[in-house]
Design a protein that fits this description.
Shape: globular
Distance between the termini: 56 Å
Structural class: alpha+beta
Radius of gyration: 21 Å
Mean pLDDT: 79
Strand order of the largest sheet: 2-1-5-4-3
Number of domains: 3
CATH topology of the largest domain: Beta-Lactamase
Order of helices and strands: HHEEHHEHHHEEHHEEHEEHEEHEHHHHH
């Protein structure tokens, strides 16, 4: 597909997908062919919790789409290194993870290998505090590993993919759009509420319903989403009125919440323009999506900040967050597909770079960066 007419046709298809979301699978198929791959996907990931999922796919079996969101997104060894890539940057799997380490990982053995994939190439399309969006293409054994030709082919179309994703503030709504497709909404690591201009709940995901049932942070009063914090309630009402009057033209805003238990959370309010409301399927009366989560998640690219400040390598960064999310050395070794002694070596380097000497201190260190309310 190096013929300029073919490239022009592909770029035209990319922009057509802006108007018709149902075309994305076909577009990814043609793009996969262009870069010499057999499967492709638009992927979203939470920058801290490492939760993630596919927005659109081509060439990936449905059960593996579900398995990625349910289990393998957090085990994807490329997830943390991709957060360090600049928007628009293209990287092969070997640029992100040592090949031997990839082959030993549970992600490769349980997700890539059963589908016949041996390598992948990715590009960062957008990064924000709420999510990152990547373009990913997988290659099978017949085509072999990613080379410079593959990378260069992808670089030709990345700017157009970026524009297609960003147009109409689409990035602000990607997670919400993806989340409304069946059970994916319940996998978001936050309480999610679609609300109308008066704050009445149109729809709530499982996390949101649990928050309402607990009643320590938010509650429902006459069907209205009501923070237990009176100041937060006033702030939320003002944002929602603004969202209705400007038809979603305002940017995402945040409201600090303090629960009855004294714990701090934050509500991110994402205004939904009329067109986006229809596309989300969450009810045309909804004027905004409200994400409620712990303040620890309210930070711009936490992993990127810590990696750059302490000059951590991608593997050291993965070990650090695996210690926090998975557990001790044996569990981290099993999850990453490396030996316990290798994990201990990286831990020693982490202790030296961060000035700590215990795993518990590493957890406290990350928590102090994640929560701006901690002195």
């Amino acid at each position: 597909m190096s013929n300029p007419m073919h490239i022009s046709s592909l770029i035209g298809d990319i922009y057509d997908a802006i108007r018709d979301q149902s075309q994305w699978s076909a577009v990814l198929g043609r793009a996969a062919q262009f870069v010499g791959a057999q499967a492709g996907a638009l992927v979203w990931r939470h920058p801290v919790s490492r939760a993630g999922g596919f927005i659109h796919t081509f060439g990936i079996e449905p059960r593996y789409v579900d398995l990625y969101a349910e289990h393998y997104a957090k085990l994807d060894p490329a997830a943390a290194p991709m957060l360090l890539c600049k928007v628009g940057e293209v990287a092969g799997m070997s640029d992100l993870v040592p090949h031997d380490e990839l082959l030993k990982s549970r992600f490769y053995q349980g997700w890539m290998q059963p589908q016949g994939f041996v390598d992948a190439v990715q590009a960062s399309l957008d990064k924000s505090p709420a999510s990152s969006v990547h373009l990913c293409f997988m290659r099978n054994g017949k085509c072999g590993t990613v080379d410079n030709t593959t990378r260069n082919q992808l670089r030709l179309i990345v700017p157009h993919m970026q524009r297609a994703v960003l147009v109409g503030k689409r990035v602000d709504h990607i997670t919400a759009q993806a989340a409304t497709f069946g059970d994916a909404l319940d996998r978001i690591g936050a309480g999610l509420f679609f609300v109308d201009a008066r704050g009445h709940i149109v729809h709530a995901n499982a996390g949101g319903q649990a928050m309402l049932a607990e009643g320590a942070l938010v509650r429902t009063r006459g069907g209205k989403l009501t923070p237990c914090d009176a100041k937060a309630e006033r702030g939320l009402n003002e944002i929602l009125r603004s969202a209705e009057s400007t038809d979603g033209a305002v940017r995402r805003k945040a409201v600090s919440l303090t629960g009855r238990d004294g714990k701090h959370h934050v509500a991110h309010v994402l205004p939904l323009p009329a067109g986006a409301r229809r596309r989300t399927g969450a009810g045309y009366t909804a004027v905004a999506a409200v994400f409620v989560q712990k303040t620890a998640f309210d930070m711009r690219s936490l992993q990127e900040v810590i990696a750059r400040f302490y000059k951590l390598t991608p593997t050291e960064l993965r070990v650090l967050f695996a210690i926090i999310q998975v557990g001790g050395v044996p569990a981290v070794a099993a999850a990453m597909g490396i030996s316990g002694s290798t994990v201990k070596t990286h831990l020693s380097r982490l202790f030296a770079k961060t000035g700590t000497d215990r795993q518990a201190d590493l957890v406290k260190l990350v928590a102090s960066y994640a929560n701006p309310l901690v002195a």
